[in-house]
Structure formats: C-alpha cells, structure tokens
Amino acid sequence: MNKNRGINTNTQKLTKSERRNAAWRSSLIGSNNVNYGTLQGTGYAWAMAKVLRKVYSNDEEYKEAMRMEYEYFNITPYMMPLVVGADLAMQEQEGIESLEAVRSIKTSLMGPLSGIGDSLLWVLFPTIMGSIAGYMALEGNPLGAIIWIILNLGLVWMRIKLFDLGYSSGMRLITDLSDRLNAITEAASIMGLTVVGSLIATVVKVYTPLEFKVGEVELALQSEIIDNILPALLPVLLTGLVYWLLEKRKWNFLKVIFLILAVSLVCSYFGILGIPS
Q1: Which phi and psi angles does 217 have, rounded to 5°?
Q2: Which of 8, 59, 170, 195 has the most crowded CB, counting CB atoms within 10 A?
Q3: Does pTM surpass 0.85?
Q4: Nearest to residue 51, comparing CAs of 66, 40, 72, 36?
C-alpha cells in the first residue's frame, strides 16, 4: 500500500501557464467530444489530464483521479471552466482525498450553472446580439460581422475569467472553509441527487395507453391509476432498470440504447407504450 496515499506529495504548485492550459482546453475543446455514455466527460477529462499528471506523481492515484473526471458530465459549455477551476484547486491542495468532494460539487453544479448558462448565454445572447449583428450585415454594414466577432471573443475571455473564479473559489473552499468541507460536500451531494431526481421526472418520458376494464368500468391505466399512485412511476422504473443494467450487469451504453429502442418498437406495435393523445 502506498503510505503517501491521500497526501499530495508534489510540493511544487501548478504554475499560471499550466493552469491556463486547463482553462484553454476546457474553453475551446472541452465540449467537442460528446458521446452518449458520458456526454462531456471525455472532453472534461482531456482538459484535466495534463495538469493532473503533475498533481499526481503516483500512477495509480492519477488513474483513479482520471476515472472520476471521465464520469458523466453535462453543462452549458460556457460554464465548464468555472467547474474545472474549482476541481483543479481542490485536487491540487488535497490530492486524492478530495475526489469525493470534487465528484459531489461537479454533480451539484451542473444543473444550476446550466440553468444560468442556457438561458443567458446559449439562448438570449445569440438571439438578441446575433439578430442585431445579422441585420447590420444584411444592410451592408461591416460592423455587423465585426461586432459579432468581438462579442464571441469576449465570451472566450469570460470563460478564462470563470476558470480563475472557480480556481479561487476552490482554494477558499479548501483553506477558509476546510472545517466545513464535509457539510458542504454532503449538501452538494444532496443537491446533485435532487437535480438527477428532477431530471428523471421531467426528461424521461414513458407513457402507456393501456386501459383497465371491468364490466362497465373503464379506467386509463396511465392517467387514472399510475399517475394517481405515483406520478412519473414509469420513468423511475425505466431509470432503475438502466442503472441496474449498467452498474450490476456491466452492460455498455450502446447495448442499453439498442435494448430500449427494441423494447420501444415492440411495445409500440402491440399498443403497450405510446404517445399521450
């Protein structure tokens, strides 16, 4: 057993240029390698790979940290550097012992930061500013294209500043609030579970048009029985099945996706599942 496990024995801190490398990686490439299994997990891990190699001189600790970084992650791309900065600061200071806290914070920040980023930067900004710049360009005014380029360069600058904000926040979390870190981690875990739970009810859609008939009595199985007992029961059951297949049976994501497609087609053909009328 490694006697130094849990202690960051690398006394040399990351330089500003090394931190900037993680900031640029997460800003420009972090969201480009999206897959069905971990969504942005691959890009996130790539953004952290180089700096964590310096943080962890022990190969096994580096592999463990990278496995955590490769896990499911999904956030508005503009907001990713903020999480990367906090993640890096915590691991730089606490080493392998910070992984559970980092995992909880990553999970809990995805939803709230995406809510801000999606509404302001993913929808509002390009809709309003893009319309203004596009109208000017259509009128033959070159300022339209120039303004649009400048605004997008401003967004790149904003990502770097968000990384710095996340890094400084992560440092304060380890230093000023170290005595409260367990409580913060637990709160972040609860918030993350709440976010995941709400996604199951709002994003996963499963509906059955089957009807329950006894003599003259006719009840819609979905709206009059299942939803009255527990709304979103079918999405919860489907999510539980997928979790069991992935975690217990060790299926890969493509196998689960093809299974869901096959079951959906068969159940739709026989009228077991369908679309709400």
Answers
A1: -85, 130
A2: 170
A3: no
A4: 66
Domain locations in the chain as residue ranges? 16-199, 211-270
| Distance of alpha carbon 163 from alpha carbon 267, whole angstroms | 47
**In this structure, what token pair is assigned to residue 21?**
């490398």
CB 207 within 8 A of CB 277: no
8: closest CA among 92, 118, 131?
Answer: 92
Nearest to 74 by CA among 176, 195, 233: 195
Token code pair at residue 149 = 């380029």
The tokens for 270 are: 């026989």
Q: How far apart are CA 251 and CA 259, in angstroms?
A: 11
* Nearest residue to 172 (alpha-carbon basis) of 266, 90, 61, 53: 90
What is the total residue count of the chain?
Answer: 277
CA gap 17, 21 in Å, rounded: 6
Largest pairwise CA distance in the chain: 79
pLDDT in tens, the chain (277 residues): 444 444 454 444 789 999 999 999 998 876 777 887 788 999 999 999 999 999 999 999 999 999 999 998 999 899 999 999 999 999 998 889 889 889 988 888 887 888 788 878 887 788 888 888 888 888 888 888 898 899 989 999 999 999 998 898 877 765 555 556 566 667 766 766 777 777 788 888 899 988 877 777 788 888 888 888 888 899 999 999 998 998 888 888 889 989 999 999 999 999 899 887 6
Q: State whether the Cα torsion 34-36-41-42 is positive or negative.
A: negative
